[in-house]
Amino acid sequence: xxxxxxxxxxxxxxxxxxxxxxxxxxxxxxxxxxxxxxxxxxxxxxxxxxx
Length: 51
Prior knowledge:
Blueprint: H1 2-8, E1 11-19, E2 22-30, E3 36-44
Antiparallel strand pairs: 1-2, 2-3
């Protein structure tokens, strides 16, 4: 459900993996000017901070 909403806004999940207890999420974003951006997010369970 969330993935479909993100795709509607040109945000696509490329990969997800777990490294040392942290989830790594890779997103591809297409901006309105046609530029593509690759974003890497590190998510640690129980920690509200993102890097």
